[in-house]
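Colleagues,

For the teaching module next term, I've prepared a clean inverse folding example: a structure given as tokens, and then the sequence designed for it. I'd like students to try predicting residues themselves before seeing the answer, so please don't circulate the second half yet.
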């Protein structure tokens, strides 16, 4: 099999992928080396749709919307996310709390701590990131408490969070 031509490498074609287009985002001073690339940070144009989706009867839509609101990071999402800390669906509550933490809100610490005990590895990673973003003694204590018994990926993320200096995200303009 011949490798795909260069123009197809970033379009899901087989073969090695060139991720250099992410370098400007990955090298931001507010992004820890172990943390997620902030692809959605500040993308406020979709906030109205995502916030409206939080009122859906579809639990999966609420879960996905909460996750995305956390990745966008706008303080304008705080009221709807706080409301869904009381959602009847546990996963919606957990994602809403992790999203709040990713925005830097202390209100999300309990959800992150709970996720570190029971959630899939990828979600525990975002809980770690959220706790790092909160940057409070309570958040750091939750990270230390959760360290034993984690898989290697989450263990390395927690160690990274505990050893990486916190740098605030830039303010999001409306």
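(Answer key — instructors only)
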């Amino acid at each position: 099999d011949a490798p795909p031509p260069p123009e197809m490498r970033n379009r899901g074609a087989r073969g090695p992928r060139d991720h250099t287009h992410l370098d400007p985002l990955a090298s931001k001073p507010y992004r820890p080396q172990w943390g997620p690339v902030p692809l959605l940070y500040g993308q406020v144009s979709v906030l109205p749709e995502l916030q409206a989706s939080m009122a859906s009867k579809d639990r999966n839509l609420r879960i996905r919307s909460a996750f995305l609101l956390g990745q966008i990071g706008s303080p304008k999402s705080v009221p709807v996310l706080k409301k869904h800390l009381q959602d009847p669906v546990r996963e919606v509550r957990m994602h809403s709390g992790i999203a709040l933490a990713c925005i830097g809100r202390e209100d999300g610490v309990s959800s992150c701590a709970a996720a570190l005990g029971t959630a899939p590895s990828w979600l525990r990673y975002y809980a770690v990131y959220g706790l790092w973003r909160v940057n409070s003694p309570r958040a750091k204590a939750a990270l230390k408490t959760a360290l034993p018994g984690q898989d290697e990926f989450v263990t390395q993320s927690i160690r990274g969070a505990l050893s990486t200096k916190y740098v605030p995200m830039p303010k999001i303009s409306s």
